[in-house]
Amino acid sequence: MLKSPLNYLFAALALTASWGAAADPVVIKFSHVVTDDTPKGKGALLFQKLVQERLSDKFKVEIYPNSTLYGDNDEMAALLDNKVQIIAPSLSKLDQYTKQLEVFDLPFLFDDLNAVQRFQRRDTGQRLLGAMASKKIVGLGFWNNGMKQFTATKELRKPSDAQGLVFRIQASNIITDQFSLIGATAVKLPFAQSFSAMQSGKVQGTENTWSNLYSQKLHTVQPYMTETNHGVLSYMLMTNATFWNSLPFDTRSRLQAIADEVTVSVNRDAEAINAKNREMIVSSGTSKLLTLTPAERQAWRDAMAPLLQKYSDEIGADVIQAAQTVNRKAH
Ligand code: LMR
After folding, report:
1. Nearest C-alpha to atom 6 of ligand 1 is from which residue?
2. What is the C-alpha separation between 241 and 89, in angstroms, rounded?
3. Distance between CA 242 and CA 138 in Å, rounded?
4. Which of 50, 75, 264, 308 is a plausible cystine mate for 70, CB 3.0–4.6 Å?
5. Exposed e or buried b for every residue in 25-47, given b needs 16+ CB within 10 A?
6. CB-ligand 1 contact for 208 (6 Å cutoff)
């Protein structure tokens, strides 16, 4: 958490001094937990490139991917303490800061990534970028990874197949409940521990996107994958308010414009990256891919349906309703 307001004061003074004296560019540290070749990893690199091209007199972006500087357990504290200036955590890891973003964890709420993007672009989505303002967190944009799939050490065709298994999950209460509803146990583990938890047998399954599964080599320790597209993995590109507000208005606007441009690029390419990684997993031959009939998929949806009601008050019925209107298929 925020250790000392003095940290901010010193950071702000350093920045102010540097504007006046045309000093060295201010370093923006961008820390994240995935590899460079995932939607978020590529977005971070593009952000770095555009800042270098357009604002190199003012900023230098340093990227720390794949939990090399901070991981799931400490990146938010590092942001609030101004040790890093940008992170892009999964929306599933923010329920201790705001309940509204839990809407993204409700399974089978969004039909596909296009629906997710429609929601994020509309008023309610844009408002959610400010959901953590009281915690001094500024949302700069939503970056999508993709839709999640289930994987395990056995075939998961129907919900009861998951009974008794232990799944690695992101730190989300809704996802914990999602697995309880199908008779499984969920353990919240940092992303960086996923591979070893599966390799050692500590957990037998997980849920994630094709790009996260492939880039962490999880397919080599998960022999079965079920294509459910049951939920979304999406991020908030964020900075801390004290850092952000210490920037001159013009500079801040130019950084935001770069963030907006990268957001468009990440969200345009995410689906293709995941499709390619799905193919690489299939062609690697390590895992069997199960696809579901509409009736089989409906059984998973039905099993998890109680979550909508359970979390409605906590998230806000208006937020859920706004999300429901972005789908184009009838249910
Ligand atoms: C996970 O923990 O599975 C993901 O949130 C990792 C990420 O940042 O995509």
Report:
1. 191
2. 16
3. 9
4. 75
5. ebebbbbbbbbeebbbbbbbbbb
6. yes
Q: Which of 194, 129, 135, 200 has the alpha carbon at shortest distance from 167?
A: 194
Give pLDDT tens digits for 207-239.
999 999 999 999 999 999 999 999 999 999 999
- Ligand 1 atom closest to residue 33's alpha carbon, by position in its atom list: 8
Which tens digits make up the pLDDT trace of 284-323? 999 999 999 999 999 999 999 999 999 999 999 999 999 9
Q: How many Cα atoms occupy the beta-carbon half-sphere of 70 within 13 Å? A: 23
Beta-strand (E) ranges in 19-117? 26-31, 59-64, 86-87
Q: How far is the first Cα of the chain from the last one, in angstroms, to the nearest whole number?
A: 42
Considering only CA atoms, give the Rg of the chain: 20
Asked whether the CA dihedral 205, 109, 280, 38 is positive or negative, the reply is negative
Distance CA 153, CA 177 (A): 21
Is residue 45 within 8 Å of 63, Cβ to Cβ?
yes
**Shortest CA distance to 2 belongs to which of 94, 136, 131?**
136
Q: Is the CB of 170 under 6 A from ligand 1?
A: yes
Computed over every residue of the chain, the mean pLDDT equals 94
What are the tokens at 13?
A: 């003074």
What is the token pair recorded at 246? 């210490």
pTM above 0.70, yes or no: yes
Report the SS3 class of residue 199: helix
